[in-house]
Write a structure and sequence with these properties.
This protein has 569 residues and is α/β, with parallel strands linked by helices. It is 45% helix and 10% strand. Strands 1-2-11-10-8-9 form a six-stranded mixed β-sheet, with helices on both faces. Strands 4-3-5-6-7 form a five-stranded parallel β-sheet, with helices on both faces. Bound molecules: 6-O-phosphono-beta-D-fructofuranose (F6P).
Length: 569
Amino acid sequence: MNSAGAAAAAPSWPRCDRTRAWVALQGHYEAHGRDLDLREAFARDPRRFETLSFAAPEVFVDLSKQRIDLAGLRFALDLARECGLEARRDAMLGGAVANPTEGRAVLHTALRAPSAGSGGGSDSGLFSREVHGVLDAMLAFAEQVRARAAAGELTDIVNIGIGGSDLGPAMAVGALQADQHPLLRFHFVSNVDGHDIAPLLGTAGQGRAQAGLDPRKSLFVIASKTFTTQETMTNAALARAWFVQRAPEADLGAHFVGVTTNLQAAAAFGITRTFGFWDWVGGRYSLWGAVGLPIAIAVGEAGFRAFLAGARALDEHFAHEPLERNVPVLLGLVDVWNRNFHGFTSRCVAPYHQWLARLPAYLQQLEMESNGKGVDLAGEPLPFATSPVVWGEPGTNGQHAFFQMLHQGTDVVPVEFIAVREAAHGYADSHAKLLANCLAQSQALMLGKSEAEAAAEAVPTAAKDFERARLARHRRFPGNRPCTTLVLERLTPRTLGALVALYEHRVWTAGALWNINSFDQWGVELGKALANRLLPRLESPADAAGSSGDAGGLDGSTAGLLKRLAPKT
Ligand code: F6P
């Protein structure tokens, strides 16, 4: 299934650094941004929080602790307009070729649009019949699987996929545990490292008595856009071989299901039930369609439709809200400000909700695979920085690991806190402590602690002979470290859908200003090709047609390492 029918490529737009607004923004940064002190800014303007916090559907965003002022934001909005952000957005949502290096439209938003004829908006007709055909079939299948689980026929769902075919469903299934089918366990196998799948297949090595799954009660979802990805194909073949050793091959169709754009390859693998998607859905945006099958199985048809509806609400906001209140656009502008003017090289994502533990990993792919580019759409090398490093861990765990560096290290790392007001458990005291920690961290990053304040404190844990004034230098916090806080009322399919769509559009906003292609990922190709060439040199001698351990023609380091790693004859 391909982009046939997509509108023509969008015209070219100015790159941010070649606009008048960029120069004005630079000037504003020099005068009012570089040295902006958050403590002084709040003291000067008691309404700073009200001015710089914004509401999108299901997500409230506080930007008041970012080192930008309202005037700076207005200059950034001028930049967005001069870069044609609104026209560009409309072109993408309307089906233009927004991924020119692969000649594809970018229409993951069509996956969450209501069906044509339901009166759901101007863009709901795009590929509507195909999208809703697959969606309805997939949701009916998910309900069948849930019924098989309720009847005691299925206990385990194993998703085999990697990158976008793993991270989105893994993140969402983990996040939506409150809504999950109570009789099903979910597993996500992604790594070509056999240690990932071995415990599930009951082959995890000596000394570990592990039963593995029951093949008669397991459903394997083989998710791969291309159905050629080495990791996924390797794990799928292992799962298939394991299955047919333990169950009649004729039952394979009831225990393996495919999710792919490559229906032929799935059929050749022996999969009879396949849900398709289209080349205009990038891997990292594919959780809204058939790649979301594990999510649909976990939360059921109603839950999955609510997930789509949350994302759709955000799409409507992104498409129609004026730029000055358009929350994904504002987040993207602050990202550009932080990256290109303040020069911050990374961003830490700290969800204060344990079930969002996989969100940072999901966002790493979304942002770094999309915007980790070094040339613009014309192929010209960029003279400015693009994607920051995105990383993180749930709070409060991160506080006891890397927050030391965030508070007192030499680099400034903007932090993104995600707080959820209502918990899905009944432990009110734990939840109050969690939220207190979240607020305290953002407060501490901003307020810091002066040397004088530190010197005035008694510190019972300090070494007795360490002079108090000298100790204060170690106990000083510079403060003025920026952060954003995102607030959800509850973590539900709908709010999660909105949150993820917010991130998607925000990443697009920064990529559009940088004038890069946020939808290709050529940077992953070279390593894949080299791994294929190295593979015969590392295969066990019996399989390797004579080249195992052969380091000839390699660079010195790779040759040396290969000799250490090659199987011993
Ligand atoms: O890592 C590159 C990539 O193409 C990702 O963009 C994609 O999500 C992942 O590999 C998996 O690809 P596929 O779904 O085709 O197996």
